[in-house]
Amino acid sequence: MAAKGDLLYAWSSDKKIQDKGECGGAVTQLLKYALENKIVDAVFAVKKGIDLYDAQPTLITDPKDLINTAGSLHCGSLLLSKLFKKYLDGANNMRIGVTLKGCDVMGMYELAKRKQINLDNVVMIGVNCGGTVSPILARKMIKDKFGVDPEKVHKEEIDKGQFIIEYEGGHKGISMDELEEAGYGRRSNCRRCKMKITRQADLACGNWGVIGDKAGNATFVEVCSEKGANLLNQAVAAGALMVENAPEKGVEIRTKTENAMLKLGDKWRKKDFSKLGEGNERLKKIVENTSRCIRCYSCIENCPICYCVECSTRKPYLVKPGEVPPNFMFHLIRFTHVADSCINCGQCEELCAMDIPLALYMHALQVDLEEMFGFKPGVDMTLPVLALVEEPTERKRLSDTGSDQIYDIFKK
Ligand code: FAD
Ligand code: SF4
Ligand code: SF4
Ligand code: SF4
Predict the structure, then answer these.
(1) How many helices (H) and strands (E) does the chain have?
(2) What pLDDT sits at residue 80?
(3) pTM, rounded to two decimals
(4) How far apart are CA 323 and CA 118, in angstroms?
(5) What is the sign, positive or negative, of the torsion defined by CA atoms of 383, 385, 390, 391?
(6) Of 51, 134, 163, 329, which is the most buried if we count CB atoms within 10 A?
(7) Confidence band (pLDDT; 50, 70, 90) for 404?
(8) How far is the centre of ligand 2, averaged over its atoms, from the C-alpha of 148 (Å)?
(9) Which residues are near ligand 2 (CB < 6 Å)?
């Protein structure tokens, strides 16, 4: 019997799921088992749309449709957590099984602590994540760097630091470092991301550390909660899922890979943040760049931290209605509401109509705030920094000290 903390190799006992799955189909099998046995009412996962650049979220209630979600799509830049709030009533009226990348699961926690998602009704199957590529840039990269027509590509994967494609006539891999040096490769927020193994989910699944004859045919599973252990044990007892203990060497390789990815994240943070400068220089850059804003509200609509019913950016006494570009107050409001909890999911930047590097600005602020207060968003149910500031106390402190530096209240 598996228990919290166990490290296993797992694969589906269904040949079709095994073949269609990215690494033996354990994730699809676990979700199928949960749906068939009414542990959940529906599964929320991702399927290939018209082509491999079209990652589509899908809600499944018929277990036989789950096979369509097997496989990993790296050229999609979806975030599933905000969709839970927007379209699934925060899982309040339905038990849902879901596959989540690092940013997805972080968003689930930030929305749950704001009472927008009910995690008691969710079974979270996390997948390790080395990063995703924006679909538009992926097509351009395949054409320019691989010299291949993107329409002819039928499979892509990221393996051992390479972006690999299979296409009519062959396969080709180019190192991610080379692609990224040339301005292609993973989205910039993914390069800075340090949520590699989703241990805050119920199960954390991935291919790092799967070696020997199991490489490519099984998934490395870390059991992260009792809920995860129960699902896994039931699927194994029913003969749906096969498991064995992960070998020591595999565990070692997984740890080494995770650490190398964390170091790479640090390298990119240093590089990206240093370009922003500090203090007034940084502010000036942000003011200049956000002056392109056409006030489409996409950054607000898609951010998993923006959840207010009445958005302050729509209050006429704060931001003058109808003015384009909006006054800088528009951006300041969003920055102050979100900065302590930004999970660096990249949605605001990816979907900005004017290509303003919003995630970079917000992530840089979040990292500074994390250094000051020690609050790390998306990892557990700890409340964000701003939730700890009580308005009457803060007003009194402001009038007593004349200082607007809220973090002074934490100083002894
Ligand atoms: P399957 O049974 O094939 O199930 C895969 C599940 O992933 C399905 O539920 C599907 O809906 C979901 N999915 C597919 N694409 C997305 C997406 N874009 N966003 C959210 N969910 C999606 N493992 C590592 O060890 N290292 C990595 O660097 C790594 N990077 C990954 C990057 C991405 C974008 C994804 C989706 C996965 C990544 N994984 C990584 C996990 C790995 O590719 C396998 O998903 C994992 O080993 C499970 O394999 P499986 O055969 O059990 O999954
Ligand atoms: Fe993966 Fe992190 Fe990028 Fe999300 S932000 S897609 S978890 S690398
Ligand atoms: Fe994601 Fe941008 Fe919101 Fe940060 S501010 S959580 S990067 S959408
Ligand atoms: Fe402005 Fe970009 Fe936000 Fe749209 S997404 S409101 S253009 S900053």
Answers:
(1) 15, 11
(2) 96
(3) 0.94
(4) 38
(5) negative
(6) 163
(7) low
(8) 26
(9) 101-103, 129, 131-132, 189-190, 193, 195, 344-346
